[in-house]
Amino acid sequence: MRADTLKGHLDGLVLATLAEGPAHGYAVIEELKRRSGGAFDLPEGTVYPVLHRLEAEGLLASEWSDGTGRKRRVYRLTRRGRSSLHGRRRDWKLFAGAVEAVLG
Amino acid sequence: MRADTLKGHLDGLVLATLAEGPAHGYAVIEELKRRSGGAFDLPEGTVYPVLHRLEAEGLLASEWSDGTGRKRRVYRLTRRGRSSLHGRRRDWKLFAGAVEAVLG
DNA sequence: CTTGACACCTAGCGACGCTATGTATAGTGT
DNA sequence: ACACTATACATAGCGTCGCTAGGTGTCAAG
Fold first, then answer.
1. Is B17's Cβ below 8 Å from some Cβ in A?
2. Overall pTM surpassing 0.90 (yes/no)
């Protein structure tokens, strides 16, 4: 997979990964890999900044969890995050449809 | 359509637009708009640099045409360009499949 | 004779995925 | 005991590339 193919789509993918329940950053990375069948095997330096950005935008909220002794930051969708995800799914359908119409 | 959604995909779209025959830059812009049903209404400052880049990479070749009096640069796919297009169509299918698997 | 479509061009900006690097803990193997 | 891997977080800086904004010039219509 070419680098930068994700550009502009990653936020939606991360939101979708958190749609079924809260998770910490590392788990988001693994879940993206799992759901995509290995296609999205993203470095931490890609995903952590996304989580920070989405939280800064109010689409995610987080809190530290030290239940297991290991410190983890657990993220969850806010209401606005869930709404943004719906918009992004719509946008994706439009975009994908347009690309396929052009590619033929 | 969000800006930058195209990032990493535009080259393939331009190649696809030229797959059915040579065209000049402005016509490529119009054809992208037409095929996409208006979704891809791209400014010239986006498309012209792409054409230059693809030509520099050997995927397109061009020559000036002044048949109508108006100067136009007409682009056509090279063999390598056509082969690149095939690869990009494959990549798109993989990418789109992975995105849809994640979005659910 | 101005307006708008056609047709080309490029400098510079901004966004963002990625590389590289750093820290620290838990588990596994030898 | 010691090394190594996986887990888990963080961020500075780079490179790419779509876009904005500005420029040149031709042609048709009102």
1. yes
2. yes
